[in-house]
Amino acid sequence: MYKIPMKRLVKRALREDIGSGDITTELIIPPDSNGRAVIKAKESGILAGGEVAQAVFTTLDPDIKFTQLIKDGEKFARSVVLFELEGNLRTILKGERVALNFLQRLSGIATLTNKFVERVSGTGVKILDTRKTTPGLRELEKYAVRCGGGENHRMRLSDMILIKDNHIKAVGGIREAMEKLKVKSSKFKVEVEVKNLEELDVVLDYPVDFFRIMLDNMSVDEIKEATRKCKMPTAKCCLEVSGGVNLENVREIAETGVDYISVGALTHSVSSIDMNLMVL
Q1: Is residue 185 domain-shared with residue 244, that is, in the same domain?
Q2: Residue 191 annotated to the active site
Q3: In terms of domains, do 165 and 222 share one?
Q4: Residues 235 and 103 in one domain
């Protein structure tokens, strides 16, 4: 599923929410009270985060019975029951908010990702996320992107070489950046960001085995011309579009013939999917 220290993450979230104890629940609910509860969707979406939600409750009490009724990555409608819980009511109430916070945000990411994926359906374009994630939650949020049908860009800086605008400015220009790249052999994949067709021409002059070239904030006409240049037999490479992408223009961009479209909004501007937990 995802490589993340689940227990440590969940314990930290529970400490943040519960503090020294749930004083309301401990006052009102007898310690030996058992019962049932459900988590329901208050709007439609794509589910993500079932495993981490389960970990919230079982960290508090390993005897809690947690049943996931809809798989991660599946669509659900408003008012559908997503999970059933059975066991100690104090435990269920203590874990309620943390579990919902994880589920709502991750499902929001999966749902928005799926909207972008559906908009580009049939074009062959892959929707990518970015590193614009919540600190400490990147593994989970990128997992949610996959649940929505998207794919992951690099997970961390050490995964690949990606020369961006600030690298280019820091060394004095695109040619200077490419010279440094040319003389340093690397086992890593290489991607270079260009902001106009002139920079693209410079990059294509260098004998570098590119993984991808990123077209940053270019117009549709510029993207079409860049695609023409990069799909020629002498310069064939994968193209990624980034910057200014939204649900209104993503289809038009996809139809230019690029290979990937990265969307920071998948994780940095997402709306959580509303859910609630109800004791029965």
Answers
A1: yes
A2: no
A3: yes
A4: no
> Torsions phi, psi of 58, nearest 5?
-75, -20
pLDDT in tens, 172-198: 999 999 888 876 656 788 899 999 999
Tell me whether residue 1 is in a domain: no
Are residues 248 and 274 both part of a single domain?
no
Choosing from 36, 115, 131, 164, the catalytic residue is: 164
Q: Which of 40, 97, 115, 154 is catalytic?
A: 97
Answer whether 181's CB lies under 8 Å from 168's CB.
Answer: no
Domain that holds residue 197: 121-268
Has 97 been annotated as catalytic?
Answer: yes
Catalytic residue among 51, 74, 151, 216: 216
228 belongs to the catalytic site: no
Residue 126 annotated as catalytic: no
Residues 274 and 264 in one domain: no
Give the integer Cα–Cα distance in Å for 92 and 277. 9
Helix, strand or coil, per DSSP, at residue 35:
strand
Catalytic residue status for 84: no
DSSP category for residue 154: -
pTM equals 0.94
